[in-house]
Specification:
about 90 residues, mainly alpha, 4 helices
Length: about 90
């Protein structure tokens, strides 16, 4: 606990421990805590925030999967127009 007294001074002298950058930590905090908290109804927020983070992780995984399969290229309309142009419905 004594070392905590010197922690600020050591960071100022030698930089963040393990090469960490506080701006990265702050951006992760905003993404994982502040934004999900804004989406809650402010009642039992921790459970809601955990669910929101879980949903966001699943959405990100789905987006990566869909993108790797080429499912996010163009729009539904452009796909139909391509099909019509290739004679799929004639």
């Amino acid at each position: 606990q004594h070392a905590m007294k010197h922690y600020r001074q050591l960071i100022q002298l030698f930089g963040a421990p393990n090469g960490l950058c506080s701006s990265i930590t702050k951006s992760k905090h905003v993404k994982a805590v502040k934004k999900p908290h804004q989406c809650t109804n402010k009642y039992h927020t921790l459970g809601q925030m955990l669910l929101i983070n879980q949903w966001l992780d699943k959405l990100a995984a789905s987006q990566a999967d869909f993108d790797s399969q080429g499912m996010l290229q163009g729009t539904c309309l452009s796909t139909i127009l391509d099909w019509l142009g290739k004679g799929f419905y004639s």
